[in-house]
């Protein structure tokens, strides 16, 4: 997916109109349409503003990654003494077998959460 397609996808996901983005960026609706249709690309400053507006990374907008969150999301605390970046770095340092085991455990936790949400308490 190219830059224009990503901008349009994000806009539609959030139910925004082109005019809202145009107002935020202080440009015309035609400019937003041109971005979405790949006629023109935003300059670096505008690209950064679009990333901020949609709460995604510039790399996501450019199609360099499918990770949407801005890089500073990795600095968020997850649990005591651990930030998201710590968990990511630890995970990347695991052997392939241990990463597979971690993913299996995460699947288990997700399933458990799903079951607990639907359970009725006696």
Architecture overview:
The structure is a single chain. The chain is mainly alpha-helical and 122 residues long. It has 2 domains: 3-70, Orthogonal Bundle (434 Repressor (Amino-terminal Domain)), CATH 1.10.260.40; 76-118. Helix content is 61%, strand content 4%. Strand 1 and strand 2 form a beta hairpin. Helix 2 (18-25) packs across helix 3. It is elongated.
Task: Reconstruct the topology from this structure.
Layout: H1 3-13, H2 18-25, H3 29-36, H4 44-54, H5 58-61, E1 77-79, E2 82-83, H6 84-92, H7 96-118
Antiparallel strand pairs: 1-2
Helix pairs in contact: 2-3
pLDDT below 50 for ≥5 consecutive residues: which ranges?
A: 116-122
Main sheet makeup: 2 strands, antiparallel
- Kindly identify the CATH topology of the largest domain: 434 Repressor (Amino-terminal Domain)
Strand content: under 5%
Helical fraction: 55-70%
- Domain tally: 2
> For the record, what CATH class of the largest domain applies?
Mainly Alpha
Structural class: mainly alpha
Overall outline:
elongated
What is the H-and-E element order?
Answer: HHHHHEEHH
CATH architecture assignment name of the largest domain: Orthogonal Bundle
Strand adjacency order, main sheet: 1-2
């Amino acid at each position: 997916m190219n830059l224009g397609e990503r901008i349009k996808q994000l806009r539609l996901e959030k139910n925004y109109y082109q005019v809202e983005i145009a107002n935020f960026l202080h440009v015309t609706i035609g400019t937003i349409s041109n971005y979405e249709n790949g006629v023109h690309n935003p300059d670096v400053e505008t690209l950064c503003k679009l990333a901020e507006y949609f709460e995604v990374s510039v790399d996501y907008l450019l199609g360099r990654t499918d990770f949407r969150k801005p890089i500073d999301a990795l600095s968020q605390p997850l649990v005591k003494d651990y930030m998201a970046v710590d968990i990511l770095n630890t995970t990347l340092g695991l052997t392939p077998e241990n990463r597979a085991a971690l993913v299996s455990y995460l699947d288990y936790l997700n399933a458990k959460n799903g079951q607990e949400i639907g359970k009725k308490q006696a």
